[in-house]
C-alpha cells in the first residue's frame, strides 16, 4: 500500500523531506519499532481521543504510555480513548492502528509530546502496517508546527 492519500498531500503541501522504511507486517507500535530496527523513543504513535466536543489526536513515542490526566489538563477537556469504529470512519485511507501523526490534515486538533520533538529523527506510520515515514527532527517539527505541544506521556517500564 502506498502512503495514505491525506498524508501524502500534507507532506507535499509542506514540502517535507522524508524517506520510506519498509518492514515486516506488524500490529503494534513496539513490534513495528523492533521489526524496523527503530528506537521506540523515535517512533511516533497516534492515539485518537474524544469527548462531547469531538476528537483530539495525541502523538507520543511508542515506548511511552499516554498520561490521560495530563492531556486532559492541557486541553481543558474530559477526554477518553475513541472506539475503533470511530477511528475507521475518520481515517478512511489508513489501516486501523496505522494512523499518521498529522491528524490536523484530517481536521482535528493534534498534540505532540515534547519528548518526540527532542528527537534527532522521527518515524511514523504512513497509513499501513508495512511502511514507516522517516524524517529529521527538524522536518518533523516543521510538519507538526500547527500542533499543540506538551508533556503528557510516560516511559513504559
UniProtKB/TrEMBL annotation:
Domain YbaK/aminoacyl-tRNA synthetase-associated: 25-142
GO molecular function annotation: aminoacyl-tRNA deacylase activity
Classification via Gene3D superfamilies: YbaK/aminoacyl-tRNA synthetase-associated domain
UniProt xrefs under InterPro entries: YbaK/aa-tRNA-synt-asso_dom_sf, YbaK/aa-tRNA-synth-assoc-dom
PANTHER family per the UniProt record, alphabetical: CYTOPLASMIC PROTEIN, MULTIFUNCTIONAL SER_THR-TRNA DEACYLASE PROXP-Y
Protein name as annotated: YbaK/aminoacyl-tRNA synthetase-associated domain-containing protein
Organism encoding this protein: Cupriavidus necator (Alcaligenes eutrophus)
Amino acid at each position: 500500500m502506498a502512503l495514505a492519500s491525506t498524508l501524502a498531500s500534507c507532506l507535499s503541501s509542506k514540502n517535507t523531506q522524508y524517506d520510506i522504511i519498509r518492514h515486516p507486517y506488524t500490529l503494534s507500535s513496539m513490534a513495528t519499532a523492533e521489526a524496523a530496527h527503530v528506537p521506540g523513543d523515535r517512533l511516533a504513535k497516534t492515539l485518537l481521543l474524544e469527548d462531547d466536543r469531538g476528537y483530539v489526536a495525541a502523538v507520543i513515542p511508542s515506548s511511552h504510555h499516554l498520561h490521560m490526566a495530563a492531556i486532559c489538563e492541557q486541553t481543558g477537556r474530559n477526554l477518553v480513548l475513541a472506539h475503533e469504529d470511530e477511528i475507521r470512519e475518520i481515517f478512511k485511507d489508513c489501516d486501523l492502528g496505522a494512523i499518521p501523526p498529522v491528524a490536523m490534515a484530517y481536521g482535528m486538533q493534534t498534540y505532540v509530546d515534547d519528548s518526540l520533538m527532542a528527537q534527532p529523527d522521527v518515524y511514523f506510520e504512513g497509513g499501513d502496517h508495512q511502511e514507516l515515514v522517516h524524517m529529521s527532527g527538524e522536518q518533523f517539527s516543521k510538519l507538526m508546527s500547527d500542533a499543540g505541544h506538551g508533556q503528557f506521556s510516560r516511559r513504559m517500564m
